[in-house]
Amino acid sequence: MRNYIIIVFYFVLFACNPSEDPQDEYITLSENDLSISYNDEFQILVVFNRAGYTTADLIWESEAENIANVDQNGLVTGKRKGKTTITVRTADNLFSSSCKVEVQPINFLFKEPYFDFGQDQAFITNKESRYLSVQIPEAMIFDGENQNIRYLNYRFKEGKYEYSFVVLPGDQDIQEEVHDFLIQRYDLLGSSTLRLYFENEEVNITYAIDEYRDIVIFYFPKVN
Questions:
Q1: pLDDT in tens, 163-197
Q2: Which residue ranges does the record assign to the BIG2 domain (predicted)?
Q3: Is pLDDT larger for residue 16 or for residue 141?
């Protein structure tokens, strides 16, 4: 009986020894949902105490680095408007945690057209708050909501919204601001003479300078 008691006491003492290595079951992040601005930075803090692992060994990844990227210390940078997920994991993939990230633009030069391609004119009329100056079967033209915008044109084919474009004055200051506006929202794909090409998850965009030296931004349905 005495031997039994000694063995049990030794086991309890060993199991409760405060010097035993910690065994966290989860990686804990300081943020589960994060909203940051374009080009802004935010440090996500991590807690993970488990034998055989250190926080320096953790691997950080972004689901969409074009929207927000993350370095190997958990520093997140907003790259353009959109949503992504930041994940931190152990190299053996046994433990992981994630944070949803939304990036917001900071340039609000103008209000973009709606991207509800395929809808009819009644739908656009109900959505738009700008003044409708011209309406014909092939087009709906709205006045610009501020002095930076000449007008917005929705184009229709067989009664369905096909594409749209915005026209802005082409002076140098506006050109630079428009470029910044688009970079904060879309991925730049390439360029040609007087044209730039962008895209995001919803639309393809062409930035052009027309014969009147105005800026024209075309919005087309996304081509996969």
A1: 999 999 998 889 999 999 999 999 999 999 889 99
A2: 23-100
A3: 141
Query: How would DSSP label each residue in 15-63?
Result: HT-TTSPPB-SS-EES-SEEEEETT-EEEPPEE--BTT--GGG-EEEES
Token pair for residue 208?
């052009």
Strand 59-62 and strand 96-104: pairing? unpaired
Dist CA 107 CA 126 (whole Å)? 26
Which of 164-198 are b and which e, b meaning 16 or more Cβ less than 10 Å from the residue's Cβ?
A: bbbbbbeeeebbebbeebbbbbbbbeeeeeeebbb
What confidence score (pLDDT) does residue 19 get? 44
CA distances from 60 to 6, 18, 74, 98, 135 (A): 48, 31, 7, 9, 52
What is the spatial distance between Cα 191 and Cα 184, in angstroms, rounded to a whole number? 17
Q: Tell me: the pLDDT tens digits for 42-86?
A: 999 999 999 989 888 899 999 999 999 999 999 999 999 999 999
In angstroms, the CA 193 to CA 53 distance is 54
- Inter-residue contact 147 to 109 (CB < 8 Å): no
Q: Which pair of tokens denotes residue 24?
A: 């966290």
Beta bridge partners of 188: 198
Q: What is the topology classification, in CATH, of domain 27-104?
A: Immunoglobulin-like (2.60.40)
pLDDT, residue 7, reads 32
Single pTM value for the model: 0.85
Residues in the chain: 224
